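chain below, 205 aa
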Amino acid sequence: SLFSPSSVPMEPMEDSFLSPPGKLKPLRWITCSLISVGLLLPLLVAVPEVKPIRKEIIGLSCVMLFVGTLARMRLERCRMELLQTSSKKREVKRRLWASVLFEELETSALEFRCMHIQVMPEGVEVGGKTAHVDVVEKASVLESGLSSATQKTCLCCLEDFQPSSQVAVLPCGHIFDEDCILAWSAAKRKASRTCPTCRSNFTVL
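prediction:
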């Protein structure tokens, strides 16, 4: 089977639930507040009523500035480390299939689309899944031989398709549960680029 996506954006997908800056934002706000208060405290020295304790005020201001600056530097270092780790572990794969309900296979025209599959970092699951898929663009597929006339079972999980099953039809015509083909595509092996049955490539370059 030959296929060509109409257009595939190359920008990485946003992943708010994995965003290191979002996790550290409250702590960064606290350190900024600490530094701001430390800068404003010396202004109290000009008030006659606090003249007897101005040394204590200046001392407290110095401590707050030192602690706030030190904490902010440490947070920025942690933020950069988290960003580097996240970018290294994040992997986006591009695959091609048509997503459709099994009961509509005989009546609906298949729309093949380029799927961006974002593999979660090791140990991270979202909704019980280790990968997230975004539907990007339509793609044209030539000579797709749909095997729905004979295939009634997903060859990944060996479960029979139900009328309400969401299935993925690959360009070669083989059909799988969409969750199964998503997990297959996210696997860290070369075979994940090809159909589990016939080894036809369904990767979008």
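Confidence is low (pLDDT under 50) at residues 1-19, 123-127. Strands lie at 2-5, 91-101, 112-119, 131-142, 166-169, 175-177.
thats it, cya
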